[in-house]
Write a structure and sequence with these properties.
The protein contains 23 helices and no strands. By secondary structure, it is mainly α. It has a domain of 227 residues. The N and C termini lie far apart (56 Å). It is a multi-pass membrane protein.
């Protein structure tokens, strides 16, 4: 009862305190957004020198790297089980209750729990490296084993590191959180490029060793992240308090929090890892099934897999990151309106979310599809017809995958986790049923076709249930989507015209530098066209409110 009263009292903030809280929130958002953006840019830009230094083995290297990372990403999801968010929530609660020592004890206990979990998860990945490599890489997959083992080291320390990040998030000290993420990416990329250059240009020229060092970079990057976190713990004076917390006013059981978090987080983890699971299915079935119907060697299959998966994933994950950001922004608001019973506001928010998603993603997807040749040339090489068509297919499919990232979270936050799990299960079953025949018939297009059909069914079922629960206006939503579609059409025309004109200047097969100019000028012209029409039609204000008006003024439209 006392806890409740304290929380209620803290909710009655003075204007000065409220303003301070708002400033903290804006500062935190700026740090997180900036660090995330720089991290994503680094995660894309490094591909250009890395792929070039791999020489004629660039495609095989990228496939080997991608296969290891798909398994690794799934292990990271499982090994953290939603604990960082739970830590942030509990730390914030105990500080609100004026019991910071309890927060210190909680973090110390959870560090022990997550250290054990990291050891278990890392051990499984390390000792099962052989079977896992055979699963995703086919029978000739011995080269993947050292890649798996190098990534197991990162799995070892990530769960405990996530506890400390959750602690800073709970204190609303987002700068420490953001800087740890940023330095992790910087150190990782530096190690990857330095090791690859040393091996491929100065040393043995063994591309498989270069890939192993590139995946080991994940562990090296996390060491850098840990150093930043400990620096901020020491600087803030919290390190000694975590080691020796004082007397507490409350009681806590770290294992009980772990169990309750696990129960709540499992649906989010399973449903949210759908794309990762599907990628693993693609790797394993393609590498194991294609030898049945073709005479391709193992290395030739790696090259083909890079065309439809590894090479495209590096770029499409940036678009999926945008979808994930949009979902994370709207989820708390959807939860708030659902709990408060504000059905009208909830319906408006869900419909608006669809419009905002289409407004962001449709022009991005169409623009990248139209600029396939220069984009592919910048990051990899001048694409063949097969590479171009597979890249366009994967880019267009990203719109559907991103839509999935938008539609499943509202059902889980509205207490329909079991239904969401059933829809996910059906989506997975459809994928598994279609996968093998699609590969045997369509070869490299098979995995993409199977994913597209299964996600179409899943997204349709999610949207239908959302409409049933919220009764969002289909008419208004479609009207908003039509506006974004029309603007995308105008943008596409401009991109095509500019690309054709630049094609006369740079020729039919422009190199990397020329492709940069083409992508920049054609993409920039298309982007400005989209913004210009959006401003003229009042869509900027509709999508972004006062910020849209401010953007319109800055563009002098």
């Amino acid at each position: 009862m006392e806890d409740s009263e304290k929380i209620m009292n803290t909710g009655q903030q003075s204007p000065k305190t409220a303003a301070k809280s708002k400033d903290q929130m804006l500062s935190g958002a700026a740090w997180r957004t900036g660090a995330d953006m720089i991290g994503k840019i680094l995660g894309v830009i490094y591909i250009i020198p890395w792929y070039a230094w791999m020489g004629r083995f660039g495609n095989e290297a990228n496939s080997l790297f991608s296969m290891g990372y798909n398994i690794y990403a799934l292990f990271l999801l499982i090994s953290t089980v939603g604990i960082p968010a739970a830590i942030a929530r509990e730390v914030s609660r105990y500080n609100t209750l004026d019991d910071p020592n309890m927060a210190y004890r909680l973090v110390r206990q959870m560090l022990g729990v997550m250290l054990v979990l990291g050891i278990v998860a890392s051990g499984l990945m390390f000792f099962l490296a052989g079977p896992l490599s055979a699963l995703v890489g086919g029978k000739d997959s011995a080269d993947l084993i050292p890649v798996m083992k190098s990534l197991a080291l990162a799995v070892l320390i990530f769960p405990s590191m996530s506890v400390i990040r959750g602690y800073f998030q709970g204190l609303n000290q987002v700068k420490a959180y953001a800087m740890s993420q940023l330095l992790e990416q910087i150190v990782r990329v530096i190690w990857m490029l330095a090791a690859t250059f040393a091996i491929m240009k100065l040393g043995s020229h063994n591309w498989k060793n270069a890939v192993t060092q590139s995946t080991l970079a994940a562990f090296i990057g996390m060491l850098g992240s840990y150093a930043v976190l400990f620096y901020y713990l020491q600087k803030s004076g919290n390190l000694n308090k975590l080691i020796n917390p004082g007397p507490v006013k409350s009681k806590i059981n770290a294992l009980e929090i772990f169990r309750s978090t696990l129960h709540t987080a499992i649906p989010f983890i399973v449903i949210g890892s759908a794309i990762q699971i599907f990628k693993i299915i693609d790797n394993s079935t393609f590498m194991n099934m294609m030898p049945w119907v073709t005479n391709y060697s193992h290395n030739e299959l790696l090259v083909l897999m890079s065309y439809f998966s590894a090479n495209t994933d590096k770029l499409t994950m940036v678009l999926l990151g945008v979808a994930l950001t949009l979902g994370s922004v709207s989820d708390p608001l959807i939860t708030e309106h659902y709990v408060q019973g504000n059905r009208r506001e909830l319906a408006t928010l869900v419909g608006y979310n669809f419009q905002l998603y289409v407004g962001f993603m449709l022009p991005a997807v169409i623009g990248m599809s139209l600029l396939t040749k220069p984009i592919y040339t910048i990051f990899y090489q001048i694409p063949s017809g097969l590479q171009s068509s597979l890249f366009v297919f994967a880019i267009l499919q990203t719109f559907l995958l991103g839509l999935y990232m938008i539609v499943y979270p509202p059902l889980t936050v509205m207490d329909h986790k079991r239904l969401a799990m059933r829809i996910f299960t059906l989506t997975l079953v459809i994928k598994l049923v279609l996968q093998v025949p699609m590969i045997l018939i369509f070869h490299t297009y098979g995995p993409l076709l199977a994913t597209t059909v299964s996600f179409l069914v899943g997204v349709f079922l999610f949207i239908r249930k959302l409409h049933e629960l919220t009764h969002f206006s289909i008419k208004n939503t479609v009207r908003g989507i039509q506006g974004a579609t029309l603007l995308t059409g105008f943008m596409a025309i401009v991109v095509i015209i500019v690309e054709i004109i630049l094609g006369f200047i740079f020729g039919k097969s422009p190199g990397r530098i020329a492709s940069v100019f083409i992508a920049a000028f054609a993409g920039g012209a298309g982007f400005y066209t989209y913004l210009w029409f959006a401003a003229k039609l009042g869509l900027l204000e509709k999508w972004f409110g006062p910020r849209g008006l401010s953007l319109r003024r800055k563009l002098h439209i």
